[in-house]
Amino acid sequence: MAFREYGNYDAVGLADLVRKKHVSASELLDEAIARTAKVDPQINAVVVKHYDYAKRQIARELPGGPFTGVPFLLKDLELLEGTRTTSGASLYKDNVADHTGTLAQRFLDAGVTIFGKSSSPEFGLMPTTEPRLFGPTRNPWNLAHSSGGSSGGAAAAVAARILPVAHASDGGGSIRIPASASGVFGLKPTRARNPVGPDRGEGWGGFSCGHVVSISVRDSAAMLDAIHGPESSSLYYAPSPERPFAEEVGRDPGRLRIAFTDKSPYGDAIDPEIAAATRDVASMLAGLGHEVEERAPALAADPAAVMSTIVGANTALNVRLAEQRLGRAMTDQDFEVLTLATAHNGQKATAADYVAAQLGAFQISRGLAAFFETCDVFLCPTLCLPPLRIGELNPMSRDLSHIAPILRRYIPATSMFNMSGQPSMSVPLAWNSAGLPLGMMFAGRFGDEAGLFRLAAQLEQARPWKHKLPPVCS
């Protein structure tokens, strides 16, 4: 195999080459490592490199899974026994995991070689990836801009073609935000589709889930086939799919009822190029035979207020556990100012405040369920501003008042689908005049990843993105 062709293959394609013995897992790993060496000094996406771990995997013989031999990165929030896992926090810069998370084990069982960890903001709290511990992850399309967050390292690495697919997770948009900012495909699955154990039954009150970002739609579908399903300790289950998700890719989606909006749910003005791109995609959908109507769900509660309380409580627990372990109060030498402030807000909230936030999430979810009785898919911009510039959000600022207004304008629509648990995807269908990607977000009914994969594959054919490469590309 001519390795210059590596970047032309998605993960399914690379696994097929290994299966047919056209290339070995070791050769693919060497290529991924070489590509990391070439572009990572510019984008800073692969912040923990454990190449020996991947080489030991190959030496022990990889399991015969659907992705055997494909190089892979875990997000630096997921535990992998014997490897450094920092959660982007200075306090944990030398932390080595003493066990493997359920999702990481399923990736291993699928046959991937895990050669490192991709960067995340501290505890995954920000929609940009600029942890103090490792410094900013830069967007391969323009190094002055963020690759998004919290799975910003994963999206940047995939966009720069270090590898075709990488682990990502999403508690308020953290798969879709970086997929949009970096010009790759990212689907957030239905709540409880993928496991989050063994140490917890749910993340961020059921908002958080893990999956991947990828070059192709079929990689996302095939990986979901490989990793989905409950574990013995799961609190609840997602509806079973009718057939393998990979079989949905290429199936006729039928004539879908698609509602769309080019406006923020808060009524704030959005970037005019993003609004125009949304309307253009809506027009394309109509041209593909879908029934397209301009309307949007009304929200019964403020998603930002719900997120603030739920995330604050979870962050407060993270800080408390660190204090109990070390026997002292945490300072900004241990955690970023934003983390400590978020934890402080969580500590101030009462148990009744937390239940009220849960009720707000339910009210949003109930309203979305009613909305989706009259449509099959909802389209809106993933981001309402272009990818942020590096430094625009500063988690070490003594004055954090700049953050909430930016988040309200930047990511007003992603978190509602974490609250409802519905599947939602960002599809790279547009670029602005400055050459930055503008992802389009599609949400489906609870449990209907199949419908989204069918639509995504149709869009991938109608407006291919795989050939679009950023200026910083391996």
UniProtKB/TrEMBL annotation:
Which family is annotated? Belongs to the amidase family.
Please give the name of this protein: Indoleacetamide hydrolase
Which InterPro entries does this chain map to? Amidase, Amidase_CS, Amidase_dom, AS_sf
Query: Does the UniProt entry include the keyword Hydrolase?
Result: yes
Top-level taxon of origin: Bacteria
Q: What keywords does the record list, in alphabetical order?
A: Hydrolase
Gene3D superfamilies the UniProt entry points to: Amidase signature (AS) domain
Q: What does this protein do?
A: Hydrolyzes indole-3-acetamide (IAM) into indole-3-acetic acid (IAA).
- The chain positions of domain Amidase read 27-452
Q: Name one GO molecular function term.
A: hydrolase activity
Tell whether Hydrolase is among the UniProt keywords: yes
